[in-house]
Design a protein that fits this description.
2 domains; Aldehyde Dehydrogenase, Chain A, domain 2; about 450 residues; globular; Aldehyde Dehydrogenase, Chain A, domain 1; alpha/beta; seven-stranded parallel β-sheet; five-stranded parallel β-sheet
Length: about 450
């Protein structure tokens, strides 16, 4: 039954893709723009559906995410060539011709049930592919409604029918069948699903676990840094994989840094008994508890049995060690952060790396610093695919108007995170490129003496 269902979707998808292959750049871009515009125009309603169905995240933040991602992604795609000849390099004589990959299978998570299907569809269609989405079972209604509204809007552009499809009743079996049947897989979700994508026998793009380490350098405005870090950590109640997880501050600045956080809505915990209570509710057998994902600080405090101010935005917990020494060093998908002291900036980076070795290697880290030498040092020594500087990592590691990261919802983590790419996944990963090599008659060939000098 499941196989027949997926086979039918793939067959329809291949027909749609073949029709779409003949569309011009202008036609393709009009359709890609429409996908983003639908989510932008329906941001509030789709955000409401997502919060109600998944039971996680923050409505206002999901609205901002729907609007922000649709804008930044379209802005990054609108002037890019993806049809026919896309580049001529006079120096090398290479001419690049863009061609579709075919049918894209996209596995999307419960944490981003609106923007991830949108994002993957925009990238897939930019490359003149068709796409079949396998949504998370706990987000099938809001993801399905997103695809439904997009498809309705695409009719006015004469887009082929079935260009974007979604599995209405998702299951692990159907998702695995889909990944085995498509031409390329994009998997955004848990590590088990990403591993399955890489084992599907098809080219795959997946993501690694996040655990964003944040080093606060000396000499920065602690109040400004605290505001940005809190904004990142609290966004959508901390379910974003690029969300800040730690605060690593110089030992002489530590109290002042914690004070800056408390002044901006943080609740600081350092007593052993309360710390242990938080460890017990946050993690089950070393893994993040489903019960805490995307919940408010107040809800977490209630689960622990303590009272915190109603205006608390984030909970800071002083860690008892680094890496494997304290489970608090792992990713916490809720508004909780672990704190650490360092003696030198180099030690601060070492603490960050030790925590990344435990979880999150290859993903992202953040540094708040005015010292370019320190920023470069962190970039050179941390095994991350992106280092976010003086920005809220959660909302900017996936691209923004104010940095050069490619806007996306899928952040590659390189070989550190068992991923095939160490950059932000985007439309260029959804194209095959044919290269035409011209004979360069005027090339000067070095003599053996010159070559080996």
């Amino acid at each position: 039954m499941a196989k027949a269902y997926i086979d039918s979707m793939i067959e329809k998808s291949r027909i749609a893709q073949k029709q779409f292959e003949s569309f011009t750049q202008e036609q393709v871009d009009a359709i890609v723009r429409e996908i983003g515009k639908v989510v932008y125009d329906n941001a509030e309603e789709l955000a409401k559906m997502a919060v109600e169905e998944t039971g996680m995240g923050v409505y206002d933040h999901k609205v901002a995410k729907n609007k922000g991602k649709s804008k930044t992604i379209w802005n990054s795609l609108r002037d890019k060539k993806s049809v026919g000849i896309i580049n001529r390099d006079a120096e090398t004589g290479i001419v690049e011709v863009a061609k579709p990959m075919g049918v894209v299978g996209a596995v999307t998570p419960t944490t981003n049930p609106i923007v991830t299907p949108m994002c993957n569809a925009m990238f897939a269609l930019k490359g003149r592919n068709s796409i079949v989405v396998a949504p998370h079972p706990r987000a099938k209604k809001c993801s399905g409604e997103t695809v439904k509204r997009i498809n309705e809007a695409l009719k006015k552009h004469n887009a082929p029918e079935n260009l974007i499809q979604i599995i209405e009743e998702p299951s692990i079996e159907k998702t695995n069948l889909l990944m085995n049947a498509t031409d390329v897989v994009v998997a955004t979700g848990g590590m088990g699903m990403v591993k399955a994508a890489y084992s599907s026998g098809k080219p795959a793009y997946g993501v690694g676990a996040g655990n964003v380490q944040v080093v606060v350098d000396r000499g920065v405005d602690f109040d400004d840094a605290a505001k940005k870090i809190i904004a990142g950590r609290t966004f959508d109640n901390g379910i974003i994989c690029s969300g800040e997880q730690t605060v690593i501050a110089h030992e002489e600045d530590y109290d002042a840094v914690m004070k800056a956080f408390e002044d901006n809505g943080a609740f600081y915990i350092s007593d052993a008994e309360t710390k242990e209570k938080f460890r017990n509710i946050l993690f089950v057998d070393g893994h993040i508890s489903r019960d805490v994902v995307g919940q408010t600080p107040q809800k977490l405090a209630e689960m622990v049995g303590i009272e915190i101010p109603a205006e608390t935005k984030v909970i800071l917990i002083e860690a008892d060690g680094i890496g494997e020494e304290d489970v608090l060093c792992k990713e916490k998908m809720c508004p909780v952060m672990a704190t650490f002291r360092y003696k030198t900036f180099e030690e601060g980076v070492k603490i960050a790396q030790t925590n990344l070795n435990l979880e999150g290697a290859g993903h992202s880290a953040a540094v708040h610093s005015n010292d370019n030498a320190h920023i470069d040092y962190a970039g050179e020594h941390l095994t991350v695919s992106r280092l976010v500087v003086n920005q809220p990592s959660s909302t900017t590691a996936g691209g923004s108007f104010f940095n050069g990261f490619a806007p996306t919802t899928t952040l590659g983590c390189g070989s550190w995170g068992n991923n095939s790419i160490s950059e932000n996944f985007t439309y260029k990963h959804m194209m095959n490129i044919s290269r035409i090599g011209h004979y360069m008659a005027d090339r000067v060939v070095p003599t053996d003496e010159e070559l080996w000098a």
